[in-house]
Amino acid sequence: MKDSYKLIIIGGGAGGFAAAIKANELNVDTLIINSGLPLGGTCVNVGCVPSKYMIENAEYIFESKNPRFNSIKIKNVQFDFEDIVHSQLNIVDNMRNEKYEQVLRKLPHVDFIKGKASFISENEVDISGKKIKGEKFVIATGSKAKLIDVKGVESIDYMTHIEALHLKKLPSKLTIIGGGAVGVEFAQMFSHFGSKVTLITRGDRLIKGTEPEISEYLEKYLKEDGIDIIKNGKVSRFEKNKDETGRAFVENPDGESEIVFDKVLFAIGKNPNIESLNLDKVNVDISENHSIKVNKYLQTSNPSIYAVGDVIDVQKRMETTAGREGSLAVLNIIQGNHSFINYDEVPYAIFATPSVAGVGLRDEDVFQTNLNCSCLSLTLDKVPKALLIGDTRGYIKMVIDHDTKEILGMHLISKDAVDIIHEAVMIVKNKMTVSEVADTIHIFPTLSELIKLVAQSSIRDLSSVSCCI
Fold first, then answer.
1. pTM score
2. pLDDT tens column, 153-185
């Protein structure tokens, strides 16, 4: 490690690592600094990788106990929860090593140091007492889970998604606070494993970023799985019982209810990791929600400092957006480019069963503009493949410009929606019209036909056509 670098990247998660790879491709003398979570950040260590492995295991167990086909009977389904967690941790270790630690060794222009960085001046940072100079900086320090500040919280056994992925024993009764993606995914995962789950959300619906109809379908399916859902709920206090269980007192429009749990999981969002950076010393502006303000080119109020990932004030937060932001930030800060992301073309996904995904504008978004909006919708029982596989749970909504017939957004809940959505991404990105999608030939039978069929519903009665039209 040297005393001075052209570029210093603070953070070794998806955004920081993508920035380092791009800087190496440009032959830029770079230092990457990481603290907290190991290399790879949230995604590989405590996010997408471990959670989706656990979700897949839980879903397999649940489907084995509840086969979709009446002629199949599976008895005595058994599993070892601790062994599943152990296997998950091994997968995380292997992927972190292969995709981050080994990749880092192949970046000749990038040095790495483990430590917490803080700005001393506009061109110097301190890392555990060592001062290092830099010409340009990219902040990619990520975020951490929010904790709830409620009376009695210190007395009960609470956890975030991080601790939940390391449990050795399956909770008998689990209460989850938060109706976003993490809350929904973990609620169904633990329910499928066999926990009795209660999900509390302060809002009037789950996944507030999707269409209300899709949220209603999701709520219905979660309840069918045995999950209790309390909407418009606010935890007023916690108490610990003598048998080491806990109680949550929840207020909602119907009154106060009391919930007993073994564990409680907070899934109420995240806070950006900015406390130790000393951003006031480098004139970097902070938003009301304590994230870093950037322009569309990812530049902060300090022209020499860019920021990416969970630490910035952008609504759509995924490891893939962070990665793309990291690459673009380096191109912009080093080469003077003006590259940016059109977040309307970025999809979102919730890995529930059935899964939820969407891209582009919602009905209510278009309503707030000067555009005239049309919508088409279709339930999955109109899709032949859904009938064949015995799972007709699902719904799609297509948001359309009434005048031009351009498809502005698509939102769906169905089996494999998180994979199907990429066709919708290309449709929105390339500004395709309803007729163009309706005329596109699809493979039969596939679940992705639901996109073709909802488009065709604008020109014909689907009950009067054959399978392969």
1. 0.95
2. 999 989 999 999 999 999 999 999 999 999 999
Q: What is the pLDDT of residue 5?
A: 98
Which strands sit side by side in the sheet containing 158-159, from one edge to the other? 158-159, 263-266, 173-177, 196-200, 228-230
The HSE-up count of residue 94 (CA atoms within 13 Å, CB side) is 7
Q: Residue 438 is inside which H or E element, if any?
A: helix 434-438
Could you tell me the CA-to-CA distances from 281 to 11, 140, 264, 277, 309 in Å, in that order? 19, 18, 39, 9, 22
DSSP assignment string, 379-407: EGGGSHHHHHHT---EEEEEEEETTT-BE
Cis peptide before 272 (omega within 30 of 0): no
How many C-beta neighbours within 10 Å does residue 395 have? Answer: 24
- CA torsion sign for 225, 227, 230, 231 is negative
**pLDDT attached to residue 58:** 98
Residue 282 CA, chain-centre distance (Å), reads 31
Of 255, 217, 261, 215, which is closest to residue 233 (Cα–Cα)? Answer: 255
Give the list of residues 6+ apart from residue 263 with CB closer than 8 angstroms, or none: 157, 158, 159, 164, 167, 171, 173, 174, 175
Strand 143-145 to strand 270-272: parallel, antiparallel, or no bridges (unpaired)?
A: antiparallel
Which of the residues in the chain have pLDDT under 50? Answer: none
What is the spatial distance between Cα 41 and Cα 162, in angstroms, rounded to a whole number? 12
Task: Note the pLDDT tens digit of each residue in 198-210.
Answer: 999 999 999 999 9
Structure tokens at 107: 């970046």
Task: Let me know: does 54 contact 84? Beta carbons within 8 Å.
Answer: yes
